[in-house]
Amino acid sequence: MSLTVLMNAGPWLSVPPPGYGGIENVVATLVPELRRLGVRVVLASVETSTLPVDERISVFPDGQFHALQRPYNQVCGVAQAHLHGVVRALRARDDIDLVHDHVEAVGLATMAAMGRDAPPALHTLHWDLAKHPELYGNLDGGGRVRVSGVSASQLARAPRALQEHSVGHVHLSTPLAVGADRRPRVAKGEHVVILGRINPGKGQDLGARLARRVGFPLVLAGPVGPYHRPEDLAAAGDEARQNPDVRFFYEHVAPHVDGDLVRWVGTVAGAERDDLVAGARASLFPLRWEEPGGTAVVESLALGTPVVATARGCLPELIEHGRTGLLTADEEELGDLVLAAGLLDEDECRREAATRFTPEVMAQRYVELYQQVRRLAARSLQLA
Ligand code: UDP
């Protein structure tokens, strides 16, 4: 297939990301598979990105994530400068068949603002679509710009105008799913894990309370705001409390963290993360928001660990209740489900991941969407 895609990963972090970086991880997972399928990829990112691609575009020498701590009037030029670089590149060449954009709000608005001679664009919505109602509720992609979601439930709750631009959803994937059904089992421990940013929507406070009530060991892994290690948070002192996730941690989670039954270990990465999840009796997602995509959910399946979760957001699409996990609408029931999760067959979880959540499955689906977006754009040009 001869298709050249400009993959716009944005200016915030390098690809792959040095640590936590949801969107950059998706791009790092997707691009190698697209290239295996014969797609040429031009990556728009920052200079420190090391992902092998066919060509690169960058405006900034390195990731600008740190700038997001600054006030709006000092930071609003960052994403704009990056997008301006992308627009200049698109004007200077005619070999880009499609832009696959991942930059929240400004990527979509910029693509939509380009003229009819610009390439078609697919903008993937990685986030909660209740955000940006004025943009999403009035979107006009001019027939050239379409959106995709990361789950059906995410798109089902989107404003009508956004839904009208949608070509569907592509579930998130994980490299851990490749061959997951053939990987040997590892010994399970007693612990339960909650893997994710510590934040009210992810519900670590509820998980920690249930752990103490029901009596299961719980490991909380993930950053609190910008702090990745307990000692960094402690060293930051009271100033850290300006961050709402830090306040949430101190007020609602930390009172349950006793360092024994309930532990916060900070961000875990690489083999340490995989061992922690693979050795857990269950991964718990005590969600208080409509989880849009759930990378940690599919990673847990790939590592052979059943998922116990509130039946919110994408969870019912990713998890089959009674086979790969246990779901409930009742928060208080989650504790009992954690105890029951040991009865589920971990091989079912691995098989599910190896079938549905590999990077190859994700890339094939995106290629279908690229073709669909190009067909729709060509048709709208003919009608114009
Ligand atoms: N993660 C990690 N270490 C941690 C906590 C989380 O590597 O200590 C990773 C996790 O494995 C997943 C990502 O961060 O790949 C979180 O993505 P998810 O879609 O679950 O949540 P988001 O933060 O994007 O809402």
From TrEMBL:
Span of domain Glycosyltransferase subfamily 4-like N-terminal: 20-130
Organism of this sequence: Micromonospora halotolerans
Keyword NAD: no
InterPro entries named in the record: Glyco_trans_4-like_N
Keyword Transmembrane in annotation: no
EC number(s) given by UniProt: 2.4.-.-
One function term, GO molecular function aspect: glycosyltransferase activity
Name the record gives this protein: Glycosyltransferase
Entry keywords, A to Z: Glycosyltransferase, Transferase
One Pfam family named in its UniProt record: Glyco_transf_4
Broad enzyme group: transferase
